[in-house]
Amino acid sequence: MRWSPERLDQLERAVRDGRRVAVDRRGTEYIVTPVRITQVAGREALIARLPMTGDEMTFVLEDLEGLRVLGEV
């Protein structure tokens, strides 16, 4: 997935507003609540929580196959 400045802004707004996102990684879709964008081993990553369990997951941005902010038009 290519991370254009507009796409990264969309993700940053979702983090700031607490909007759920659908993240596609390795053929699996995760519906998560983004917490923050950070660096992990020198790579940009999204830290997010699973709504049902509250468990934190880390998604390296360059490894994602897709991302949708839910509820956006």
Description:
This protein has 73 residues and is an alpha+beta fold. It has a single domain (5-69), classed as Roll (SH3 type barrels). Helix content is 18%, strand content 47%. It contains one helix and five strands; from the N terminus they run H-E-E-E-E-E. A five-stranded antiparallel beta sheet has the order 4-3-2-1-5. A hairpin with a 6-residue loop joins strand 3 (43-49) and strand 4. The chain is globular. The mean pLDDT is 92.
Radius of gyration: 11 Å
- CA distance, first residue to last residue: 21 Å
**Helical content band:** 10-25%
Class based on secondary structure composition and strand pairing: alpha+beta
* Strand percent estimate: over 45%
Instruction: Quickly name the level 1 CATH class.
Output: Mainly Beta
Give the CATH topology. SH3 type barrels
Poorly predicted segments:
none
Oligomer: single chain
Count of domains: 1
Shape: globular
Biggest sheet strand order reads 4-3-2-1-5
Q: How many DSSP H or I helices?
A: 1
H-E string: HEEEEE
